[in-house]
């Protein structure tokens, strides 16, 4: 993608290898609406990595094109700090998972939680815009996606690569479901 100034404005041109994006639009045709389609309403996807459409027989939804520049300018990720502390690092001892042990092996402690939160959000946004994610379950809570995150080992050797779980929200927004969803 490149930018060019023209008479005081900026024009954005799409590079050949940038994905074509679509917005899922639900068109209500009466009182019996599909809850899954309603959860997809307004969500953005690269055309090549969108949920199956039409979603069901008699689906009235459409996939409407979105300019790539709109996606780049507006896509955003969000995560609750509580997904890291107390959940990921199990600082209150209330979770039965052992995720804190994996992060400890990589050299991370609860003191790194804010950095980990920001880094996971940064990488997830970048990969979402590139269409580099895997579609997961779609239900009445929404469309889940998995995004692979790579973190450097704190000792300076090697990297840790693992899946994170996100939910797609309208207008290019992603919300973190789980900071560690498996290898």
Walk me through the structure:
It contains 5 helices and 10 strands, in the order βββαββαβαααββββ. The protein has 183 residues and is of the alpha+beta class.
Structural class: alpha+beta
Strand order of the largest sheet: 6-10-9-8-7
What is the averaged pLDDT score? 89
Share of helix, binned = 10-25%
The biggest beta sheet, please?
5 strands, mixed
* Cα end-to-end separation: 32 Å
What would you say about this model in short?
This protein is α+β, with helices and mostly antiparallel strands and 183 residues long.
Q: What key attributes describe this structure?
A:
183 residues; alpha+beta; disordered N terminus; 23% helix; five-stranded mixed β-sheet; elongated; 5 helices
Write the layout of secondary structure elements.
Layout: E1 2-6, E2 9-13, E3 21-25, H1 35-40, E4 44-46, E5 62-66, H2 68-74, E6 76-78, H3 84-88, H4 99-105, H5 113-130, E7 134-139, E8 142-152, E9 159-169, E10 173-182
Parallel strand pairs: 6-10
Antiparallel strand pairs: 1-2, 3-4, 3-5, 7-8, 8-9, 9-10
């Amino acid at each position: 993608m490149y930018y060019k100034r023209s008479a005081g404005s900026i024009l954005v041109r799409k590079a050949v290898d940038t994905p074509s994006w679509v917005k899922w639009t639900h068109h209500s045709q009466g009182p019996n609406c599909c809850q899954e389609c309603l959860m997809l309403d307004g969500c953005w996807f690269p055309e090549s990595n969108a949920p199956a459409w039409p979603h069901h027989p008699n689906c009235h939804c459409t996939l409407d094109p979105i300019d790539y520049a709109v996606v780049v300018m507006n896509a955003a990720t969000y995560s609750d700090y509580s997904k890291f502390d107390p959940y990921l690092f199990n600082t209150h001892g209330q979770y039965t998972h052992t995720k804190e042990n994996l992060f400890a092996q990589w050299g991370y402690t609860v003191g790194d939680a804010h950095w980990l939160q920001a880094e996971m959000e940064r990488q997830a946004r970048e990969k979402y815009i590139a269409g580099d994610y895997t579609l997961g379950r779609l239900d009445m809570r929404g469309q889940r996606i998995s995004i692979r995150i790579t973190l450097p080992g704190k000792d300076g050797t090697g990297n840790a690569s693992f899946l994170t779980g996100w939910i797609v929200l309208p207008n290019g927004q992603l919300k973190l479901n789980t900071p560690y969803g498996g290898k």
